[in-house]
Structure formats: structure tokens, C-alpha cells
Design goal:
mainly alpha
Length: about 350
């Protein structure tokens, strides 16, 4: 909004030239999202406490130590959504279609998560939305976003798959691009959801991934830098660095309240929305494969669940003491802060490996 309002006045007021620069607006987005989190966080947490009346349910299939968390309010992802939305709308170029695609996925997935959390906490349905219904809604939202991306992205990138390490490889997926993009967005969303099981565990890897993709979007959207690094240049995608900045600021602000011991949980409202956002950004920037590396922690958590289920169904035996993976280490006697910090370290290492693919072409 500020870009659209103030840049036309730059010829008269030179200070407004600042709003032309993505770096300046990305920094503004980070600080705005952080400020929104600090201003509205306490009020939202108090509202959630009163609305939930201390009846936050704890799943039965978690370690016994989680019983002490009963009463901690959830749906804190609403604060993340609020901070991202306000910050993005304030600092991004609202004529950019990619910004609206990513916002659609973020808010759409967040709405699905909110409905799920609401049903659980009000007692209307203890298990929330039926799993199949959630999946169908996510697929529909992702399908609209995928088709939208195809219509606004120039050929041949519109339906292309870029392979890291190979500078000239672009696989033409045709209409198969839509189911592929759906898989990426829905998969990323649910992978973050599975990871969100300990205080602060998911939000820091999300913040790390958002920072990485903010940098990737900036490079891919700049003809000079993308040419130097031999990346596929996507016109206009640099604007997503502002959205990524908003996500970094919102994540950092939420961590203030979610750090152990958590004052609030993000719930499906937050985990589905931020995971979907990362998936959508990777699709738009043509770095879907790189997301699997940078977000490798989310992949590991998801694979642990798949391995556990398949092993039990085929052999009757469990590979892990409990899945997802973080619960396995809880069962092994690791303290919760130890698991969380070590997983943050793993996420940081994987992010560095993912970022190295930008140069290895």
C-alpha cells in the first residue's frame, strides 16, 4: 500500500524514493510484523484464554509430560496471520499477482486450521474437522493458487520444474504442474503441522526457511543477480521478499510467546498457514526441490510418521518409540528444550546446504 501511494510522489518528495527499494520495504515488513505481534499478542492470548476457558485438549498419542500443558491456549496462529497480513498489505506492491497468490494460500489454509481448532476447543467436535474434509479444502485452495501461478508466470517457466545443480535443466510438466504444485503446498503445510509438537520447535525452522526464501525471491526476481548465479529469472517474484520479511517478523514475534514454556500454541491455524505459505513461495520462485532441503527438518518429521505407520501395518512393529520424530526423543529421555534447540541446529544446517545450491550450478 505504501509503495502504491508514495512512490508516485517520489519526484516531488525525494524521501519517498526509499519505497522503491525491496530491501527497505522488506526491513519495514519485518519490523511492522514484529510490532504487531508485540502490540496485539497479550490481548489475543488473553482473549484465547477466556474463550477456551482453560480447556485446551491434549492429544492422547503424546508423551505423558504433555499433560502439564493442559490449559495453554492454542489458535495463536491467528496472531501470526494478523501480523503477516497487515505487514504485507502495508509494504508490498499490491499490483503484484504473486503477492496475492501467496496471501490466498496463507489465509486460506489458516482459515481451514482455524475451523479445525475452533471445533476442537468449543466442544462441537473434539477431533476437529474430519481429516478428509481438511485435505479436500487444502487441495482446492492449492489448486486455485497453482492455476493462478500458471496464468501469471511467463512461459516456459509457467509449468516448468527447475532442478538444482543443473543450470539449464527445465522440465516441462504441462498441466501436471497443477497436481505437482498442490502436492508441494499441501505437503509443506501438513509437514509443518506434524513438526509443531513442542514449545518453539516449529516456528524457528519456519523463520529460517522464510529468511532463506526471502533471499531466493530477491535473487530470482533480479535479472542481474539471477543472470550471474545462472538462476531462472522470474519477473516480479522479487516482491515476495517483502512477504517473507513479514513472515520472519511474525515468526520472531510469535516466538516471544511460544518459547518454552509456551504461553500460547500456534495450533493448526498457524502451522497449516505458514507451511502452505512456504510451499506457495517455493512454487512461485521455482525452487520446490530446494524447499525439501531447506525445510528438511519438516521432511524428516513427516517421513518418521510414514515409516512408523507403514512398518506397524506390515510387520506389527514400530521403528520409533513414538512418532513424529521429536516424540521419539522425548520417550528416550531427552529434555524438551534439548530436543528443540538441537532440531533448530539441524534446521540451520539444512538451510545452509539448501542455500549452497544457488551457487552450485
Amino acid at each position: 500500500m505504501l509503495f502504491n501511494l508514495l512512490v508516485p510522489l517520489a519526484d516531488e518528495y525525494i524521501v519517498f524514493n526509499l519505497f522503491r527499494y525491496l530491501t527497505f520495504r522488506t526491513g519495514g515488513a519485518i519490523m511492522t510484523a514484529l510490532l504487531v505481534s508485540f502490540l496485539f499478542g497479550p490481548a489475543i492470548i488473553n482473549w484465547l484464554k477466556s474463550a477456551q476457558n482453560g480447556n485446551t485438549p491434549v492429544r492422547e498419542d503424546v508423551p505423558e509430560g504433555h499433560l502439564k500443558k493442559v490449559g495453554t491456549p492454542t489458535m495463536g496462529g491467528f496472531l501470526i496471520l494478523l501480523a503477516i497480513s497487515i505487514s504485507t498489505l502495508l509494504w508490498a506492491d499490491l499490483r503484484n499477482g504473486y503477492v496475492w497468490v501467496v496471501l490466498l494460500v496463507t489465509i486460506g489454509f489458516g482459515a481451514v486450521g482455524f475451523a479445525d481448532d475452533y471445533l476442537k476447543l468449543t466442544g462441537h467436535r473434539w477431533k476437529g474437522l474430519p481429516g478428509r474434509l481438511k485435505l479436500v479444502l487444502e487441495i482446492l485452495i492449492a489448486a486455485v493458487a497453482a492455476y493462478w501461478v500458471m496464468t501469471i508466470t511467463p512461459a516456459p517457466l509457467a509449468d516448468g520444474l527447475v532442478i538444482p545443480f543443473f543450470k539449464n535443466v527445465l522440465i516441462n510438466l504441462g498441466w501436471f504442474f497443477i497436481p505437482f504444485a498442490i502436492f508441494v503446498m499441501v505437503g509443506a503445510s501438513n509437514a509443518v503441522n506434524l513438526t509443531d509438537g513442542l514449545d518453539g520447535l516449529a516456528i524457528v525452522p519456519v523463520m529460517i526457511a522464510a529468511a532463506c526464501f526471502g533471499f531466493i525471491a530477491y535473487l530470482v526476481g533480479n535479472s542481474v543477480y539471477s543472470g550471474y548465479l545462472q538462476l531462472h529469472y522470474v519477473v516480479g517474484v522479487g516482491e515476495l521478499s517483502v512477504f517473507c520479511g513479514a513472515l520472519v517478523g511474525a515468526s520472531l514475534g510469535f516466538l516471544w510467546y511460544n518459547a518454552p514454556p509456551a504461553m500460547v500454541f500456534m495450533g493448526d491455524t498457524g502451522s497449516l498457514s505458514v507451511g502452505g505459505a512456504l510451499g506457495a513461495i517455493s512454487v512461485v520462485t521455482k525452487h520446490e526441490v530446494v524447499l525439501a532441503i531447506i525445510g528438511g527438518l519438516f521432511v524428516l518429521e513427516t517421513v518418521s510418521v510414514i515409516v512408523q505407520v507403514v512398518s506397524f501395518k506390515l510387520t506389527g512393529k514400530r521403528v520409533f518409540a513414538m512418532a513424529p520424530l521429536h516424540h521419539h526423543f522425548e520417550k528416550k529421555g531427552w529434555a524438551e528444550p534439548t530436543i528443540v534447540i538441537r532440531f533448530w541446529v539441524i534446521a540451520s544446517i539444512l538451510a545452509l546446504i539448501g542455500m549452497s545450491t544457488l551457487k552450485l550450478r
